[in-house]
User: Fold this.
Amino acid sequence: MTGSRATAGLVALALALTLPIGSASAASGVFIYTPPPDLHSVTDPAPACLSYVDGVSLVNKTDQDVEVFTTPNCAGVPHVVPPGAPKTTLSFKSLRPVAQARGTLTYYTKAEPKSLMNPSSGICRDRAGEGPVTNATNATVIFYDLPGCPGTYTQLLPSQSEGTFTFQSFKFVE
Assistant:
């Protein structure tokens, strides 16, 4: 092989290795979703105020009552969650055990919404969501109950569609 043919062959090979195969399709617009609530656990919590938590639920596996407040700084009239109560769903801004507790206090706080701009279509995304969703893209988004986008699904149509969904994975289709 001569020098110029070898150079041309190497250039063609380099281009073939760097250029994408086929054409990827992308939705136009923004998709906003809410991840599941964030988990927080406190072992053997002291009777001190946990303030500004923006909580959505809690599990009291301690030996003491836990007071839950709709205001920051444990002010106002509390809702009392007794020891061993099942998961309690309510909005709260602060909480405190009534006395030194033994056990685990678990509470969940609102997660910050996430967004995707011009997401690629046909790609499964293993991202969980729980709550409000806005689809301001030109593609339909499909939500799946399991990671990997298998099985049953729910869809949200394009162009400013909104809803509340719980999902483990999703993808866009045009």
Observations:
- Residues 24-35+111-173 form a domain with the Gamma-B Crystallin; domain 1 fold (CATH 2.60.20).
- Confidence is low (pLDDT under 50) at residues 3-23.
- The longest helix spans residues 3-18.
- The radius of gyration is 25 Å.
